[in-house]
């Protein structure tokens, strides 16, 4: 690694650590970094991978419920660092959007991909302003605004904060395996208040609801022994919040687990691997890809035990046209043992058709 290249990478990183991978050099995720708000809400271009993930439930005036997803990904191409050309693709941006409508019975989804710059796409440093063409997620004063113009649907939604950031792991250092080098910086904004509109099939509908925003960045997240992960983000009905995940081996067993639980009074604690358990239940097989996903789960997170049930089974997201992955990402309810609804949120299942490649 030449000295000029090293200094350029480190200047953009919060900690003096680097990771060598895929012919390039990336900033390293290490314990002890203090997340700063709002500065860390923006892009971290020295790291390999980053995403801003907004998921939630929408309610129409008729009472009909929908699920939605708006996600922007940033991927750094470090091999382009020594290329002096302005056309060298140093950062790639991807976006996914989905709308889950039980009346339709399958997920509506769309995707975008572009290289950063030249007025095509941008992920700004220091604030949430990420966009690809006419798709965007932006911070505007006290709210976030998402705009998506898909082929079969469009979303214009605002998200108002009701709670402070939820720092996952150890103060935002989220370990993803036995090796602490497999880690990310990770925070969530649960219990977001949603207002806006959804348009589909020539009909525009005002909606309200609740959402969850995840922001995560890393250079080495997936342990080589893992094929993917199972993740939930649940806005609890009492005002609390639960994030829980497990990294999964090829045989379906857990390599590593973790989570964060915020009680309704605001007290938050990080959950150790032994405190988080995912047990798969009923499965669903995609008629398009042939991939089988466990769409119902029993999850234990600390003292909280829930049953996870999908709004509908077919919430598979085929994103091979952008990030090259097929995964299940869908709206779910958290149900108690006596069938009470404890919350609503999203479930993500990756690495079921083949190992997830970040």
Q: What does the secondary structure layout of this molecule look like, with pairings?
A:
Elements: H1 3-11, E1 18-21, E2 24-27, E3 49-60, E4 65-76, E5 91-100, E6 107-115, E7 121-123, E8 129-132, E9 135-140, E10 143-149, E11 153-160, E12 166-167, E13 173-175, E14 183-200, E15 203-220, E16 228-236, E17 241-248, E18 254-262, E19 268-271, E20 276-280, E21 283-285, E22 292-294, E23 297-301, E24 304-310, E25 316-319, E26 325-335, E27 341-349
Antiparallel strand pairs: 1-2, 3-4, 3-15, 4-5, 5-6, 7-8, 8-9, 9-10, 10-11, 11-14, 12-14, 13-14, 14-15, 16-17, 16-27, 17-18, 18-19, 20-23, 21-22, 23-24, 24-26, 25-26, 26-27
Quick structural summary:
The protein has one helix at residues 3-11; strands spanning 18-21, 24-27, 49-60, 65-76, 91-100, 107-115, 121-123, 129-132, 135-140, 143-149, 153-160, 166-167, 173-175, 183-200, 203-220, 228-236, 241-248, 254-262, 268-271, 276-280, 283-285, 292-294, 297-301, 304-310, 316-319, 325-335, 341-349. β7 (121-123) and β8 form a beta hairpin. The chain is mostly beta strands and 358 residues long.
Overview of this structure, please?
With 358 residues, the chain is mostly beta strands. It has one helix at 3-11; strands at 18-21, 24-27, 49-60, 65-76, 91-100, 107-115, 121-123, 129-132, 135-140, 143-149, 153-160, 166-167, 173-175, 183-200, 203-220, 228-236, 241-248, 254-262, 268-271, 276-280, 283-285, 292-294, 297-301, 304-310, 316-319, 325-335, 341-349. It has one domain (3-349): AttH-like domain (AttH-like fold). 3% of the residues lie in helices and 55% in strands. The strands form four sheets. Strands 3, 4, 5, 6, 7, 8, 9, 10, 11, 12, 13, 14 and 15 form a 13-stranded antiparallel β-sheet that branches. Strands 16, 17, 18, 19, 20, 23, 24, 25, 26 and 27 form a ten-stranded antiparallel β-sheet that branches. A two-stranded antiparallel sheet has the order 1-2. A hairpin with a 5-residue loop joins strand 26 and strand 27 (341-349). The model is unreliable at 1-16 (pLDDT under 50).
């Amino acid at each position: 690694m030449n000295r000029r290249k090293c200094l350029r990478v480190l200047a953009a990183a919060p900690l003096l650590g680097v990771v060598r991978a895929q012919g390039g050099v990336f900033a390293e995720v290490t314990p002890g970094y203090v997340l700063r708000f709002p500065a860390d809400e923006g892009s971290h271009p020295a790291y390999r991978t980053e995403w801003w993930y907004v998921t939630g439930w929408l309610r129409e005036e008729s009472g009909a419920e929908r699920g939605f997803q708006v996600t922007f990904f940033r991927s750094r191409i470090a091999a382009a660092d020594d290329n002096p050309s302005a056309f060298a693709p140093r950062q790639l941006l991807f976006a996914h959007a989905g709308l889950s409508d039980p009346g339709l019975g399958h997920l509506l989804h769309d995707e975008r991909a572009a290289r950063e710059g030249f007025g095509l796409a941008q992920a700004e440093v220091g604030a949430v302003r990420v966009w690809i063409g006419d798709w965007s997620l932006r911070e505007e004063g006290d709210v976030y605004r998402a705009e998506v113009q898909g082929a079969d649907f469009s979303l214009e939604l605002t998200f108002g904060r009701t709670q402070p950031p939820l720092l996952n792991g150890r103060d935002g250092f989220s370990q993803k395996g036995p090796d602490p080098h497999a880690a990310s910086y990770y925070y969530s904004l649960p219990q977001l208040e949603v207002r806006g509109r959804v348009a589909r099939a020539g009909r525009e509908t005002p909606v309200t609801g609740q959402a969850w925003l995840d922001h995560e960045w890393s250079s080495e997240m997936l342990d080589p022994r893992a094929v993917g992960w199972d993740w939930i983000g649940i806005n609890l009905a009492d005002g609390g919040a639960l994030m829980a995940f497990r990294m999964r081996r090829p045989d379906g067993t857990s390599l590593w687990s973790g989570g964060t639980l915020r009680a309704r009074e605001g007290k938050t604690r990080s959950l150790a691997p032994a405190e988080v358990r995912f047990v798969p239940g009923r499965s669903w097989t995609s008629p398009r890809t042939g991939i089988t996903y466990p769409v119902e789960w029993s999850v234990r997170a600390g003292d909280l035990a829930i049953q996870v049930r999908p709004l509908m089974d077919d919430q598979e997201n085929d994103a091979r046209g952008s990030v090259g992955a097929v995964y299940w990402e869908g709206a779910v309810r958290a149900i108690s043992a006596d069938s009470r609804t404890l919350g609503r949120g999203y479930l993500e299942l990756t690495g079921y058709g083949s190992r997830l490649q970040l």
